[in-house]
Amino acid sequence: MPEGETVWRTAQRLHRALAGAPLTRWDLRWGELATTDHRGATTLEVVSRGKHLLQRLDSGLTLHSHLRMEGKWRVEDSGSLTARQLANPQIRAVVGTSRWSALGLRLGMLDLLPTVQESTLVGHLGPDVLGPDWDAERARANLVGSSAAIGAALLDQRNLAGVGTLWASESLFLERIHPWAAADSLPAGVVAALVARAHRLID
User: Fold this and answer.
1) Among residues 129, 128, 160, 133, which one has the least CA distance to residue 144?
2) Catalytic residue (choose from 3, 5, 118, 127)
3) Is 3 considered catalytic here?
4) Which phi and psi (to 5°) does residue 30 adopt?
5) pLDDT digits over 164-195, tens only?
6) Burial group, residue 85, by CB count within 10 angstroms (0-12, 13-18, 19+)
7) For residue 1, pLDDT beyond 70
8) Catalytic residue among 2, 5, 118, 127
9) ∠116-120-126 over CA atoms, to 5°?
C-alpha cells in the first residue's frame, strides 16, 4: 500500500493539474457514481489526509479516493488521450480539464459526498504526519494509550495517519524498538522519539 508521502505527492500533482479550471471530463466507473456528471464544476483543491485523497469542488462536493494496495492516479495531457487509453478496464475514474486529465486506475475506494461531510470518511484518523494538523504529542499519547504491539499501533491510522509498513519498520529499526513490544509498556520518551523519527523520515 502506498505510504503517506506517496499519497501527499499524488495530491500535489493532482492539485497542480486540476485546480482552478472547470472540469470538462467526469467519468466515474464506480457503481451508482457512474450516473453523476459534474462537468463545469471547478476544483478548488486536492489534498491528502493520511492515505486518503480529497478533491474539493466549488459545487460543495468532494471526490474521495483511496489507493489501497494497487491504485494510482495518472495525469495525462487531455488533448493526447486516445479512445484506446480511455477504454482501459483498470480505469475507475477520469476527471479532467481542457488541459489535463487525471486517470484513476485500480482505485480501492471512490466516494462523492458533500465537503462538509468529509469527516464521515476521514474523521477517525489521527494527526496526519504530513498534514497541517500534525500534533506529535497527540500521536505519542495515542500510541502510549494502545494495548496493541507497537508495530501494529504505528500502522493504526487512528493513532497517526500516513505511516505504512515501510516507514513503521524503518522507524522501529532505527530506534531499536521491538515491533511486538506492547505500546503501552514503552516509556513515554521512547515513544516520543519513535514518533519524531517517523515524522522526520516521511517528511
Assistant:
1) 160
2) 3
3) yes
4) -150, 95
5) 999 999 999 999 999 999 999 999 999 999 99
6) middle
7) no
8) 2
9) 105
> Is 175 designated active site?
no
Tens-place pLDDT, residues 88-134? 999 999 999 999 999 999 999 999 999 999 999 999 999 999 999 89
Cell of 127: 494527526
Locate cell 469527516: which residue? 119
Of the candidates 5, 51, 118, 127, the residue annotated as catalytic is 51
What is the pLDDT, as a whole number, of residue 101?
Answer: 98
Please give the model's pTM, rounded to 2 decimal places.
Answer: 0.94
Spatial contact of 37 and 112, defined as CB atoms under 8 Å apart: no
Known active-site residue 70: no
The single-letter code of the amino acid at 122 is V
The residue type at 53: L
For residue 65, the cross-strand partners are 53, 110
| Number of other residues whose CB lies within 10 A of the CB of residue 105 | 16
Query: According to the model, what pLDDT value does residue 128 have?
Result: 97
